[in-house]
Amino acid sequence: MKIRIAKVILSRFVIFLIIAIIISVCFAYYKCTNKTVVLEFGTFVGSMYDVPDFQSYKALDDAICKFEKANPHIKVKYKSGILKTDYSEQLSQRILKGTEPDLFCVLPGDFNTFASIGELTNLNNLIKNDKTLDLSKQYGTAIKSGKYKDSQYAIAKEVDPELMFVNKTLLKKQGIKLPSVDWTWNDFYKICKEVTIDKNKDGKIDQFGAVGFDWKQAVYTNGQKLFDANGNKAIFDNDGVKEAINFIIKLNKLNQNYVVSLKDFDNGNVAFKPFPFSTYRAYNVYPYKVIKYGQFEWECIKLPKGPEGKNAGQLNSLLMGISSRTKHEKEAWEFLKFLTNDKDVQLDVFKYSHGMPVLKDVVESKETDKELSKYNLEGKNFINKKVLSEVVEQSIVTPSFHKYEASMDIADKDIFQLINSGGDVQETLSKLNYKLNTYLKP
Which regions span the lipid bilayer (predicted)? Predict the structure, then answer.
């Protein structure tokens, strides 16, 4: 009898012990899976585009609020007050100390460096394994801007294409119509030649065709590449690049050695100037339109295309990347995906920034019409959405490799000297190509 009672007690104790273990494991699992993750996001105050911006944190705060409601176990924090001019240096210092944010904004000049030193997480597997993500909804060029050596290391939140700023008042006085959407270098040169005159008859030219259309824009609008995809080889000595340099030399000769300045343009004495879309947006609304360019009517159109190119220039992107040392890769990925693919967050790019969303559906939506016309005094949509989409899709994304910025500095100095001092174009480009290929060798 005693033995039977002991067995019953033992069996009950075992059952109790098992139940207690199960409860403990479940409780531990619950605590683990519901533990609040604090995610740090690296950003800066003000506009990426160096234009007036007094609501730089508004869109981010709204995005964080919405994200945290959908993901209550994740809290997102950021340090405020870091100026864009100081952001790269401060971020680099934190990377050196190993204290960088879990994910952060990556400025165009930093992407190649961060990707090459292994600071950014390779996103290929995260993208491949995420069934909720459809990158085909984004502009192809925006996606390409976050690639380094065929791998995705960042995703763009917004982009900034180049357009041509046109002084409509000046053209109207000369009896010249606004160029068509598919205008060419020949059209561009013809108008520049026609408007380059001595208005006050003092023997000096005081009205000009263009300012700021440089050799790089000529190369890109002529559809040319300056390096191979991986940055192993320079290709400056091809006919398309030579054609672009010769066009710039020809264009500059119209000014008879006068160096056209931004002041000339601001005073209404220049017909054309390339501008990023962000600048156009910033100065097309009250009060900045009155302050900056209130003395003449102006419009924005596509860049002129060369014989081998399209009506688009270089594309700049505000990229978002994840630190390769983050302890919260899953959560960082969810927030990165949210910033770059949520429609409300993307529409806020038009509301609170001067860039352009990366989601094609958002750009082409009716909500975009409202945002683009809201602050215009005439209440009009100041640019055709279809044209804007075409410009982004046709834009050039410069290659991503570690020595790109330094290589372009070398090229810029040699070509600037060539354009301004004369010389044989083919010979100069051949020498430059050799110099760059020597520099690019491992």
Answer: 9-30
Q: What is the pLDDT of residues 28-70, one digit of tens each?
A: 444 445 589 999 999 998 777 776 665 778 889 999 999 999 9
Task: Kindly report the number of other CB atoms within 10 A of residue 103's CB atom.
Answer: 28
Judged on CB neighbours under 10 Å (0-12, 13-18, 19+), 344 is middle
d(CA 50, CA 53): 8
Give φ, ψ of 394 to 5 degrees: -95, -5
Mean pLDDT, rounded, for 425-431: 95
Whether the CB-CB separation of 298 and 167 falls below 8 Å is answered with: yes
Torsion of CA 407, 411, 413, 416, to 10 degrees: -150
Confidence of residue 378 (pLDDT cuts 50, 70, 90): low
Q: What is the mean pLDDT of residues 81-95?
A: 94
For all residues of the chain together, what is the average pLDDT?
87
| 208, 198 contact by CB (below 8 A) | no
Whole-number Å distance between alpha carbons of 115 and 59: 27
Cα–Cα distance measured from residue 31 to residue 383, given in angstroms and rounded to the nearest whole number: 52
Average pLDDT over residues 291-320: 85
* Greatest CA separation for the chain: 127
Cα distance between residue 92 and residue 98, in whole Å: 10
CA dihedral for 123, 126, 127, 132, sign (positive or negative):
negative
CB 37 within 8 A of CB 73: yes
Hey, CA dihedral for 92, 94, 96, 101, is it positive or negative?
negative
CB 236: neighbour CB atoms within 10 A?
A: 26
Q: Quick one: tokens of 420? A: 């301004």
**Closest alpha carbon to 184 in 100, 303, 342, 348:** 303
Does residue 347 sit in helix, strand or coil?
helix
Between 285 and 405, the more confident residue is: 405
| Nearest alpha-carbon partner for 364 in 342, 390, 339 | 390
Alpha carbons 274 and 280: distance in angstroms, whole number: 10
What lies within 8 Å, CB to CB, of 127 at 6+ separation is 133, 135, 152
Alpha-carbon distance of 342 to 383, in angstroms, equals 24
Half-sphere exposure of residue 78, counting CA atoms within 13 Å on the CB side?
20
Residue 212 near residue 183, CB atoms below 8 Å: no
Beta strands in 327-389 (DSSP E): 356-357
Tell me: pLDDT of 16 over 60.
Answer: no
